[in-house]
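The data are quoted verbatim for reference:
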Amino acid sequence: LRDHGNTVIVIEHNLDVIKTADWLIDMGPEGGDGGGTLVAEGSPEQVSENEASHTGMYLRRFFE
């Protein structure tokens, strides 16, 4: 799909998939009533630098 110019939206928790994305939208900071807020957005590298992002915390090891 992407190779034909389409946008693909994926909801994912696997870091091996997340780290290869072009752009991330990190919602949280928790689930349920504690979530639903935009915590971070950007490339995986940019999200890894966001101290407020739980996802970024786990991505950091890939970009250090």
